[in-house]
Design brief:
This is UDP:flavonoid glycosyltransferase YjiC, YdhE family. The chain has 15 helices and 15 strands. It is of the alpha/beta class. α1 crosses α15, α4 crosses α5 and α9 runs parallel beside α13.
Length: 349
C-alpha cells in the first residue's frame, strides 16, 4: 500500500482522463492505495468520486477562436507564479500531513516542486514530454512554435526526477536513465466497451473552434456526421449535433467509420485503440497537437491539415485510404496501462 499525491492539470479532459485511468489501474492491482489529487478545473471531479482533493490554481492554456491565446495564457501564468512560494509551502504541508510516499504529476506545476522539498520521489506521467525528452521529429515550418512550446514545458513542467511518457507514437528517449516511453493510457469506460464495429457515420469533436469554420469540412463528408463540442442544435442534412454525454460519445466512437478532431492525444489514442483512423485539424499554435497530427500521417494511420479549407479538400482522399489505414492501425499497440502501472509500482519506495 502506498500514499500517492497526484497533481493534475485540469484545463481539459485529457489530463484528467489519463490520471483517472492510471488511478483505476493501480487500484485494480492494490485497492489499499490511498490517493490525494491536486489541481484545478476538472480535477475537482475526483472529489465527486470520493477521493481526497485539494484545489490549487492551474497554469491553463487559454483558447480563443480555435487558437491558443498567447498573451492571455501568459498573463494567467504570471499572476499564479508570483505566489508560487505560498502555493508550494501549502502543498508541502498537505503532503506531510497525508504522509505521502510518492508524487505523480500530469503536467501540474506545484506537485514535483513540493515533493522535492520534502524528499519524496516525483514522477512526471504525461504525453507532453514526448516533445522535450525524446528524439521527436521537428518540422521546419513549426520551428518558432516548437521553441515557445518546448520552453514552456522545460521551464514550468520538467521539475520531476523521472519521466514516464505515454504516447501513440514512441520515439527513442533522449536519456533512457530518466525517461521511458510507453503506449497510451486508456480509461476504464473505453476498455469496457464492446468490440468495435465499422459503422457508416463519422464522429467529429472539435474543442474551442468555430462552427462556421468547421462547416466546409462537415459538408465534404458524404456520410452521417455526429458532432460533439458545440451546443445541441437542430440537424442540418446529414449533420447531427450531439449533446454532451460521455457514454453516448463512446458508443458513437465505438461504431464510427473514422474520427475528425483536433490533435488532442487522448481522443486520438482512444480512436486508434478502437481501430478508427483519425483526421486531425490541430488547434492553432498548439505545437503538441501539430506533432501528433504529423505522426498520424507518417504512420499511415490518419491524415491532417492545418487549415479547415485544406481538410475539406482532402476528405475524399482520406475516405479512399480507409482500408489501408485500418490495416496499419492493426500493426501497432495502443494500450499501455499495465506496463505503466508495473513501472509505477516498482518506483514506490
Amino acid at each position: 500500500m502506498a500514499r500517492i499525491i497526484y497533481g493534475v492539470m485540469g484545463d481539459a479532459r485529457g489530463h484528467v482522463n489519463r490520471s483517472l485511468a492510471v488511478m483505476q489501474t493501480l487500484l485494480e492491482r492494490n485497492p489499499d492505495h490511498e490517493l490525494c489529487f491536486v489541481g484545478g478545473g476538472t480535477v475537482r471531479d475526483f472529489a465527486d468520486m470520493g477521493f481526497r482533493y485539494e484545489q490549487f490554481p492551474m497554469l491553463e492554456t487559454v483558447l480563443r477562436d480555435g487558437r491558443v491565446a498567447g498573451w492571455a495564457t501568459l498573463s494567467n501564468a504570471m499572476s499564479i507564479l508570483l505566489r508560487r512560494g505560498e502555493h508550494v509551502a501549502r502543498l508541502m504541508k498537505i503532503m506531510e500531513e497525508f504522509k505521502a510516499d510518492i508524487a505523480i504529476t500530469d503536467y501540474e506545476y506545484f506537485t514535483p516542486r513540493a515533493a522535492k522539498k520534502i524528499g519524496i520521489p516525483a514522477i512526471s506521467l504525461d504525453h507532453q514530454h514526448v516533445l522535450t525528452h525524446t528524439q521527436c521529429i521537428v518540422p521546419k515550418e513549426q520551428r518558432l512554435n516548437r521553441i515557445s512550446s518546448d520552453s514552456v514545458i522545460r521551464f514550468l513542467y520538467s521539475a520531476a526526477e523521472r519521466f514516464i511518457v505515454s504516447s501513440f507514437y514512441r520515439p527513442e528517449a533522449l536519456d533512457s536513465e530518466i525517461t521511458e516511453v510507453y503506449p497510451p493510457i486508456l480509461n476504464k469506460p473505453v476498455r469496457a466497451l464492446d468490440a468495435p464495429e465499422l459503422g457508416d457515420h463519422v464522429l467529429v469533436y472539435v474543442r474551442g473552434g468555430s462552427l462556421e469554420r468547421l462547416t466546409p469540412v462537415l459538408d465534404a463528408v458524404q456520410r452521417k456526421v455526429f458532432v460533439y463540442g458545440f451546443e445541441e442544435q437542430p440537424s442540418r442534412g446529414n449533420v447531427v449535433f450531439r449533446k454532451t454525454s460521455r457514454s453516448g460519445f463512446l458508443e458513437d466512437l465505438r461504431t464510427a467509420a473514422y474520427v475528425i478532431s483536433n490533435g488532442g492525444h487522448n481522443l486520438i489514442s482512444e480512436s486508434l485503440y478502437l481501430g478508427k483512423p483519425v483526421y486531425a485539424i490541430p488547434t492553432g499554435f498548439f505545437y503538441e497537437q501539430f506533432i501528433n497530427a504529423v505522426y498520424l500521417e507518417r504512420m499511415g494511420i490518419g491524415m491532417y491539415s492545418v487549415r479547415m479549407e485544406d481538410a475539406a479538400a482532402r476528405i475524399p482522399e482520406f475516405e479512399a485510404r480507409q482500408d489501408v489505414m485500418r490495416a496499419n492501425i492493426a500493426t501497432h499497440q495502443f494500450f499501455g496501462n499495465d506496463a505503466i502501472a508495473d513501472r509505477i509500482e516498482s518506483l514506490i519506495p
